[in-house]
């Protein structure tokens, strides 16, 4: 038979209310009392009734993490970090993706019964505007990514302009003068790409270099195939190129494949930099120089802020900028 709160209370030598306070993570319990109750819980194997607890507290212990695409390595690695930090905070994470579809992003904010199963939402939007976010959402929301939305939700992001500037400056410091850019976007969901292009152009202008139109390759698909094809297109034009900055690592890995097929040496002939520092880049041949956003910090801060809002601490609406660094590997060394 299931162990009861009364049995835990008797073993710990405290009241049933005190055991309930510990189980429900109320803060006004003395540390030594909490430890004694936890020891009794562990000894008896007590398991809270999740359904009853949800009815009593209004909380489910579930967080939702929604990103544009789970098959993108960056988002997969970010999700792993969010799950790790949420688990440490006592929450379970449910994952979903929007495919950058505006209707699906809006649906996540709708006041529907099925949305109340989550205590809070971590969302990486690509199409939403400030007007789309409710001033008083039914559940706390933390936003990720580079789409700046002034509202009541906390926003965790990196400085994409500065990061792209650093990446381009690195190529220029290697003596490269004909820098190709793969991944610009002129679509509503392309905010990250626009910021990265801004940083790239800034670095080129500071060095007295111009961006030749033949070397600027847009891409609405950030895949290996897109990077591969864009690199082939650049090489086919015959314009001098000695460096490539791809706006994510998967495109950069595709570009490396195209360069290898055309017998272009990396980095001797063309240096390559990516963005995101996905694990695959460490094992590409050559290994990939990249911008590394602090994904663990993004995940940790997002979970911390969401849990704080769920607990009623803080009003939200804060902009939190997380750091990045350049990881130099073989694709630019030498």
Layout of helices and strands:
Blueprint: H1 5-12, H2 16-23, H3 31-44, H4 50-57, E1 62-67, H5 73-88, E2 92-97, H6 102-109, E3 120-123, E4 141-144, E5 154-157, H7 160-173, E6 179-184, H8 191-206, E7 216-218, H9 224-237, E8 243-246, H10 249-261, E9 271-275, H11 280-283, E10 289-293, H12 295-310, E11 319-321, E12 324-327
Parallel strand pairs: 1-2, 1-3, 3-4, 4-5, 5-11, 6-7, 6-8, 8-9, 9-10
Antiparallel strand pairs: 10-12
Helix pairs in contact: 1-2, 1-3, 5-12, 7-8, 9-10
| Low-confidence runs of at least 5 consecutive residues | none
Beta strand % = 15-25%
CATH 4th-level superfamily of the largest domain: Response regulator
Q: What composes the largest sheet?
A: 6 strands, parallel
Coarse shape: elongated
Q: How helix-rich are the residues, as a percent range?
A: 40-55%
The CATH architecture of the largest domain can be given as: 3-Layer(aba) Sandwich
H-E order? HHHHEHEHEEEHEHEHEHEHEHEE
Structural class: alpha/beta
Compute the number of helices. 12
Briefly note the CATH topology name of the largest domain.
Answer: Rossmann fold
Strand order of the largest sheet: 2-1-3-4-5-11
Please, how many domains? 3
Characterize the structure shown.
By secondary structure, the chain is an alpha/beta fold. The protein has 3 domains: 53 residues, 434 Repressor (Amino-terminal Domain) (Orthogonal Bundle), CATH 1.10.260; 124 residues, 3-Layer(aba) Sandwich (Rossmann fold), CATH 3.40.50; 134 residues, 3-Layer(aba) Sandwich (Rossmann fold), CATH 3.40.50.2300. 42% of the residues lie in helices and 16% in strands. The protein contains 12 helices and 12 strands. It has a 6-stranded parallel beta sheet, with helices on one face. Helix 11 links the parallel strand 9 and strand 10. It is elongated and about 80 Å long. It starts with a helix and ends in a 7-residue tail after the last strand. 39% of the residues are buried. The mean pLDDT is 90.
């Amino acid at each position: 038979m299931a162990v009861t709160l009364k049995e835990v209370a008797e073993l710990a030598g405290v009241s049933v209310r005190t055991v309930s306070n510990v189980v429900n993570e109320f803060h006004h319990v003395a540390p030594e009392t909490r430890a004694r109750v936890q020891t009794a819980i562990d000894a008896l194997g007590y398991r809270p009734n999740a359904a009853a607890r949800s009815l009593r507290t209004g909380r489910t212990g579930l967080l939702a993490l929604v990103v544009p695409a789970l098959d993108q390595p960056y988002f997969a690695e970010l999700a792993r970090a969010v799950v790790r930090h949420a688990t440490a905070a006592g929450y379970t994470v449910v994952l979903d993706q929007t495919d950058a579809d505006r209707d699906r992003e809006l649906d996540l904010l709708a006041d529907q019964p099925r949305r109340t199963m989550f205590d809070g939402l971590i969302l990486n939007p690509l199409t939403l505007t400030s007007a789309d976010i409710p001033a008083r959402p039914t559940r706390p929301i933390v936003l990720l990514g580079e789409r700046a939305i002034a509202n009541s939700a906390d926003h965790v992001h990196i400085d994409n302009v500065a990061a792209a500037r650093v990446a381009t400056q690195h190529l220029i410091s290697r003596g490269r003068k004909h820098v190709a850019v793969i991944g610009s976007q002129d679509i509503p969901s392309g905010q990250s790409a626009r910021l990265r292009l801004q940083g790239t152009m800034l670095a080129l202008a500071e060095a007295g270099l111009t961006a030749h139109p033949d070397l600027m390759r847009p891409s609405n698909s950030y895949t290996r195939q897109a990077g591969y094809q864009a690199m082939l297109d650049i090489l086919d034009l015959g314009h001098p190129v000695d460096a490539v900055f791809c706006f994510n690592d998967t495109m950069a890995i595709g570009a490396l494949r195209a360069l290898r097929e055309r017998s272009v040496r990396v980095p001797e002939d063309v240096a390559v930099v990516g963005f995101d520092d996905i694990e695959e880049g460490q094992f590409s041949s050559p290994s990939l120089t990249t911008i590394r956003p602090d994904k663990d910090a993004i995940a940790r801060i997002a979970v911390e802020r969401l849990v704080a809002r769920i607990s009623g601490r803080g009003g939200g609406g804060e902009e939190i900028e997380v750091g990045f660094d350049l990881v130099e590997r073989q694709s630019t060394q030498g």
